[in-house]
Amino acid sequence: MTYDVIVLGVGGVGSAAVLELARRGQSVLGIDQFGPPHDLGSSHGETRIIRQAYFEHPNYVPLAQASYTWWDQLEENSPAVAPLYVQTGLLQVGPAGGHVLRGVRESAAVHGLDIEDVTPKEINRRWPGRYTVPDGLEGVYEKNSGYLRVEACVDAQIEEARRRGAQFRFDTCVADWQASEDEVVVRTETETFRAKKLVIAAGAWSAEVLKNLPAGADTASADSQADRSESIRFAVRRKPQFWFSCKDDRYKADHDTPAVLFELPHGVFYAFPQIGDAIKVAEHSGGDVVADPTSLDREVHDEDLNRVRDFCSMHMPGVGEQFLRQAVCMYTMSADEHFIVDVHPQHSNVAFAAGLSGHGFKFVGVLGQALADLVLVGRSNLPIGFLSCARESLRGDAD
């Protein structure tokens, strides 16, 4: 069967792309090696923080703001009872000159965002007994932040895409794809599919699916194809997330508890308000390199657990000692830790998103819209130029 567009990878970004293409009247097929929503990639673990005052770079702010519209519309169209987005506010703590607070304040200043500086004393007054902020650190509070229910978001995107006529092949491994000027051919282990265009949103499998993308150039040269050092590289990192018991109900969202992020000398850690019987806490920094995403180590490692436990004992005194459960996801890092969203430099009818570097889920709807733009008309009015695969900062190894 021939489609207008095939989408490889139906996680957060891929399911959003399928939905957006179906909304635009395209016949679209989404293919995934698993059965989304699942816990084998990067779009799982109950929750993801969503925020606007973006410390990674001010250029993300318009995309973050547009993402709120996507989630509002998706929730309005979704039959799910529970909300997809929960506004809790976000408290970010760190040194004034650190990467996080400096970046938050810069983005807020550039885009006129509403943030509030809070001292350690004010933090203790507003959220008593919840956070211990050591000397030398300060906080910034962003009211218009919160969290997304990640699996519910992916499921809602898939179900709305189905209602709009999209088709899916789950638990289906792609063996190969080829693109010519007029056609894309995708081969699985049992079937061959054809389409006019292709979108790739392969997450931790991006390096394998995208093959050798040339770095820092608009088109591939013979040299860049021959020399791997001139190709875009991705580093996949193992990221465990932990759930702990709570000593009481102080961390519940209905007690005005925000999501939090701490930048500390030994790492960056984050936590959500308590949901159900547990509070989720994890480390954003670090992570072991994953050689094969399909064989990701999902066991509990004492060194990972103890780092998060130590963070809680020092900075979140209401978190209990009882470890309840763990989930392991993956960050797919680009060399400069910014997304790559572009038309494939060798195939004008192929668009892709890759290297979301551990901060991409909140944007998946907007990235799906951008991919639909790129694959259908070759450009997007969304401000994604800084995410081009032609940027020089993609040269070299991802860390």
Estimated structural class? alpha+beta
What gross morphology would you assign?
globular
- In DSSP terms, counting alpha (H) and pi (I) runs of 4 or more, how many helices? 9
Q: How widely separated are the two ends?
A: 41 Å
User: What is the radius of gyration computed over CA atoms, rounded to a whole number of angstroms?
Assistant: 21 Å
Mean pLDDT: 94
- Report the count of strand segments: 19
- Beta-strand portion reads 25-35%
Describe this structure in words.
By secondary structure, the chain is of the alpha+beta class. Helices cover 25% and strands 28% of the residues. It is built from nine helices and 19 strands. It has helices at residues 12-23, 61-77, 99-111, 120-126, 150-163, 206-210, 222-226, 302-315, 364-377; strands at residues 2-8, 28-31, 47-50, 85-87, 90-94, 116-118, 138-142, 146-149, 167-169, 174-179, 184-188, 192-200, 235-246, 259-264, 267-271, 279-283, 319-333, 340-343, 350-354. Strands 1, 2, 9, 10, 11, 12, 18 and 19 form an eight-stranded mixed β-sheet that branches. An eight-stranded mixed β-sheet has the order 6-7-5-14-15-16-13-17, with helices on both faces. A hairpin with a 2-residue loop joins strand 14 and strand 15. Mean pLDDT is 94; it is low at 219-229.
